[in-house]
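Q: I'm writing up a methods section and want to include an example of the input and output format. Could you take the sequence below and give the corresponding predicted structure tokens, formatted cleanly so I can copy it straight into the document?
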Amino acid sequence: MSKKEEKKKSLSYEAKNGYELISDKDLKKCDELNKAYMDFLGKAKTERESHDEAVELLEKAGFTDMEINKRNGKKLKPGDRVYYSCEGKTLMAIVVGKKPLEAGMHIVGGHTDAPRLDVKQNPLYESTGVALMDTHYYGGIKKYQWLTVPLAIHGVFVKPDGKKISISVGEDPEDPVFCITDILPHLAADQYKNNIGTAVPGESLDVTVGSIPSKDKEAKQKIKENLLEILNKKYSVTEEDFLSAELEVVPAAKPRDCGFDRSMILAYGHDDRVCSYTALKALIDVKGTPEYTSVVLLCDKEEIGSVGSTGMASNFFENASAELLALTADEYCELSLKRAMSNSWMLSADVNALMDPLFPSAFEAKNASKINHGVCITKFTGARGKAGSSDASAEFMAHIRRIFAKNEVIWQSGELGKVDQGGGGTIAYLMARYGMKVVDCGVGLFSMHAPQEVAGKLDIYMAYKGYNAFFMDKR
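A: Here is the clean output for your methods example:
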């Protein structure tokens, strides 16, 4: 290649498939990380399970509950590793840095809730010889995708005395599974008249759970009664206990390698456990004491607007940061808290949509992320005219470029489809309100929000590597 050709090439930019760039050493680490991720994802089907699995990983790595420090009045020092929990759903994991908290934190925030079907509070009924459970879908789903799919039920019953009964049915090979039936094509003339969005009404997403009648001759709904007898025998619950239960219906399938080359993972819940797990692992693998306090947020309710006490629209992060400041500073000061928030840097760790070869018209090819081209940085999300986006600054984008280049992180930029096609949002704008620098950075997916999503293994590994580099950066 001539010098003229080399110069011309250096002036242009083109994202490449990461497998053309990755080292053999990183390739081995990539395989190890993805095996661990698949194990986590198979166990963590709900936000409660994700929280508990995360706490187990943290404690194995030497993290302790910050509540212990609060109760004992014991201060935290640089290098200490703690976590802070909110209602068993949202989690904040922390490695205390060398600099005072007022200098800012390096935060990676993902979410562990995923689109699903929630069992209603008064769900059980029977009709035409079948017992069913009424559901209310959670998050943005294509309702037709949930018909005829093998389903599992996860969650908790909580008794008035506070006793919590956890259930998980449909995951073990010996377990029964559940399903939502669909009309056969021979009789679907009326269904075919509807468009794809209205062909399956939300109220018809009822899960088939039984068909054998009770032997109780006096029971009015014998199949429902038999189901209640089974639940009472196994879990000691009654129909009234559904009033204080949280039961989630999710796909029963385990994560699987996808493709002849095993370069992808097909699984439920990549959005956004793929970013949550890689962020958590990146924090656990932080070596020594970072310059700035490193934080991972695993939050709830993102799929429905980050509302509620466990969502990022709440004061959880602000309150937890205040507790952290009280345990690290000589004196607690509200101004120091505000400075800590505004001086922080954050990667909003959420997924983006991959350029899908079967639906190319939805994407603008130059600005769409591609599978296994690396972790995706999304400067802005939102819908159409950037509504609902925080839109990262050019200065902060430059910092991320510097960090990733220094640490050989393979990355790409991407938008969420064509300008007028639709859009979406993350927790980025909720964190940017504190004045901190925020940009979205996560893994691209095929079939986002479907019962089974596809992610590239190289992209998953590069998310981990990028988050770890971000934690260790000295600015």
